[in-house]
Amino acid sequence: MTTETPATSGCGCGCGTPSREQLLPDLSVPGARATASAGTGRHAIEQIRVPAGTFTMGDSSGDKNRADGETPRHEVAISTFDIDATTVTNDAFARFVEATGYVTEAESFGFSAVFHLALAAPEEDIMGPADGTPWWAGVKGADWRHPGGRLSDLDGLGDRPVVHISWNDAIAYCDWAGRRLPTEAEWEYAARGGIDGAKYPWGDQEVDEGGWRANIFQGEFPRRNTCEDGYLTTAPVRSFTPNGYGLWQMVGNVWEWCEDWFHPATYRRGATADKRTTVTDPVGPQDGQTRVMRGGSYLCHLSYCNRYRNSARSQNTPDSSMGNGGFRTVGRRDGRA
């Protein structure tokens, strides 16, 4: 398996997505969009209570990507929290939009990033390939309702993860639902499902051992996907097997936004001289240019991008959206919904 992948996109890997600015360098800021009243919505995704505990955060497999800052490994204590059993679905996001009139950034900017095999758009809508990752294209009319472009729709996809959601969009949903995004540490602790030090949510067995365990790319990336796991793009959120906490698809399927700002030196900066010191509920850097994404997606490949591991980190700008990026939420720190 490849252990180093080139930082050629906003997410730092080929299956990640170029930032919005990479797709359209002369980008201007869109006008005001509809917003929602905080805490007024009904979040319908099943909740899982993750017990408090301590775990070793960071790469233990040797497959780390140096530029991502997956080391040094360090002890982290996490308080009890509630997390969505699945990523937010198209049906759940549609309820939010219907209740609020919210306009996503992909809709406001007028385009989003689509993988070339998932295109469903007239030629005039395709803005061209992204620099360095030609399998990604900016597509006019691509948004959460039209994941492949304006010739696509959500018919039969209500239980799939909502995609083409920017970090800012995810925060708007959280505000409406009285929720928040997980911190990077909470996400990794939850993904491990109680198996400390494991490479994947199910343990150390490879993703294709004894049948596919997650939705990633099969075949020859990026030209041919054999769809051995049954899916070209997203899978229903309750596909495969949940981890030890009952959480579905913490790796593969779609990248998941986290609350934290991204910096490759986050773990090094947080390390102390006494390696036995445990950090409690870390929240990441105070500022930055990009936000953390976790979990990999349906475009990760066994021989190319290995970021569908518990410890793998990625990032993109808060206004960027993509056909393989979504989110799940956690309960607010004040204990309310």
TrEMBL record:
<dbReference type="InterPro" id="IPR042095">
    <property type="entry name" value="SUMF_sf"/>
</dbReference>
<dbReference type="Pfam" id="PF03781">
    <property type="entry name" value="FGE-sulfatase"/>
</dbReference>
<dbReference type="InterPro" id="IPR016187">
    <property type="entry name" value="CTDL_fold"/>
</dbReference>
<dbReference type="GO" id="GO:0120147">
    <property type="term" value="F:formylglycine-generating oxidase activity"/>
</dbReference>
<dbReference type="InterPro" id="IPR051043">
    <property type="entry name" value="Sulfatase_Mod_Factor_Kinase"/>
</dbReference>
<feature type="domain" description="Sulfatase-modifying factor enzyme-like">
    <location>
        <begin position="46"/>
        <end position="330"/>
    </location>
</feature>
<feature type="region of interest" description="Disordered">
    <location>
        <begin position="311"/>
        <end position="337"/>
    </location>
</feature>
<feature type="compositionally biased region" description="Polar residues">
    <location>
        <begin position="311"/>
        <end position="322"/>
    </location>
</feature>
<dbReference type="InterPro" id="IPR005532">
    <property type="entry name" value="SUMF_dom"/>
</dbReference>
<protein>
    <submittedName>
        <fullName>Formylglycine-generating enzyme family protein</fullName>
    </submittedName>
</protein>
